[in-house]
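cron nightly-structures :: item 1 of 1
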Amino acid sequence: MKAAHFTYHRPTSVDEAVAFLDDYGGAARVLAGGQSLVPMMNMRLWRPLALVDINRIPELSEVRAEGTSTVLGALVRYTTLERLPLVAERLPVLAELVRHIGDRQVRNRGTVGGSLVQADPTGEFPLACLVLGATVRVVGPAGARAIPVAELYEGSYATVLELEELLTEVVFPPAPAHFAFTEVTRRHNDFAVLSVLAVGDRDAGGRWRDVRVGLGGIADTPVLAEAAAELLNGSDLSDAVIREAAELAVDVADPPSDIRASAEYRRHLLPVYARRVLTELRDAPLRGEQS
């Protein structure tokens, strides 16, 4: 199948893009990388009256330091995160994690803003944004606002954004020094069955602080295992503590059953992979240190 008829607009500024979205009263869609939008349109699951192509808005492709924060424009491609020295220096977890997203063709076109707005509960980038405490900046007819990623999602494939609003930037605070990530897939480059990301800092005495554990694919949205993180903070991440934290992580799981895995299988896998990630977090040397 091919997409139904639509009108195409190519604005050159954020204000112009928002004006187009407002003109269509919620019946237009934003075209960024098109990795999710175009297939949905070709299957006629989505039939927008218009597409607003934001690829000619230069500031949306910028990556910059803003004090201690790091700002990614909504059009930043995954492949940029893999290669950019500023990202490797300030947000190395992103440089590592995006290598798990799709294949090279997807990473060449897929954008950080598109991933966040798509709100796929198995998405790697939304999970990273949640764990790292990121905030998105959006602009709409009523003006600009900032939304913590922890408050961005209403459910599976659903955000709190108005249809006339445009996500413009993602802002990251300083990231912890240590991280570990894994995901389970049926085959290479497939959608994740579940994923686990842990970050934290370790003091000279081997005690951990600022530990955050995020889980993907086990609920309608990415979630934080807050009880597990509370147990881990202040500990030395001993095997016993890790085992207990992994079991606590299951408490926040409400996994779906779908074509990739049953809810029971996801629930079974979760503590196993949580233990693996937390053990890797504990045992890995600080990035840049000699082991």
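cron nightly-structures :: done
The two ends are 54 Å apart (CA to CA).
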